[in-house]
Amino acid sequence: MMNREETLLQKRLIELSQTAYFRDIVMFSDFLNLNELNILHTTPKHLFHSRYVVYGGYGLSERQMVAFLPDALYAFSDDPDIHYPIRILAISPQNRRFCEELTHRDYLGAVMNLGIERCKLGDIMVGGSKALLFVREELADYIIENLTRIRHTSVTVSVSNDLPRDYEPKYEEIKGTVASVRLDTVLSLAFPLSRSRITAYIEGAKVFVNGKLVTSNGYRLKEGDIISVRKMGRIVYDKVLSETKKGRYLTVVRKYI
Questions:
Q1: Are residues 160 and 178 in contact, defined by beta-carbon separation less than 8 angstroms?
Q2: How many helices (H) and strands (E) does the chain have?
Q3: Of all residues in the chain, what percent are helix, strand and coil, respectively (each to 5)?
Q4: Does residue 37 contact residue 64 with C-beta atoms inside 8 Å?
């Protein structure tokens, strides 16, 4: 059963789909987190009046917007070009010699302290002394003008060039053998946790595959599946490289850093 906030979100998404259909325009949601994306993907399709696609600024984004599309967009192409209202902001220290080591939480907290809701912000990608922030485009100028300090570090913010859709964040490639291509065994390969801890994460509704909540340990993965574990990170199940003589599978996954 969904709680009140989840029910309201589902109602809002249905309303966006209706507007797209009856007004013949593209309608966008705010950025949705994993739980909210799961509500989208598990809502019966007949409740939506129009087709939808999701995107968060790059192909493997975790927080994503939904675009509800009018039928007219498909008149000339099955893959219409959609301009999402997303801007990518580059945040960097004014003086690298005196900057602190800032975390994802530091960047997020500083932006939200400007009075911006989390739903207006997409992924934050931290690398070295810099970060990329995905944000609704109408807030970009406000953040550029007002975000001048994170903790004790003075920063500058500028618009970054759009990332290509096939952009992929840095990752670590992990190889190992598993008894089967089940969700729990692949997660055990990627994360240094006991089997019982992995099971607790899955059954505790903290694991999502391609944006959908999965609570079954035995869920069988397909090549290219994106697995997100709340507060632990994301991996992609790549493929089985070979089968050993003992019937185990040499498997490779990509774990994003």
A1: no
A2: 6, 14
A3: 30, 30, 35
A4: yes
**The overall pTM is greater than 0.85:** yes
Cα separation, 11 vs 29, in Å, equals 12
Sheet strand arrangement including 130-136: 121-127, 130-136, 86-93, 153-159, 149-150
Three state DSSP letters for 39-106: HHHHCCHHHCCCEEEEECCCCCCCCEEEEEECHHHHCCCCCCCCCCCEEEEEEEECCHHHCCCCCHHH
Query: How far is it, in rounded angstroms, from Cα 104 to Cα 180?
Result: 34
Q: Is there a contact between 30 and 120 (Cβ–Cβ < 8 Å)?
A: yes
3-58: per-residue pLDDT in tens? 899 999 999 999 999 999 999 999 999 999 999 999 999 999 999 999 999 999 98
| C-beta separation of 240 from 246 below 8 A | no
What is the C-alpha separation between 230 and 106, in angstroms, rounded? 18
Indicate the DSSP class of residue 198. Answer: H
Tokens of 219: 């869920």
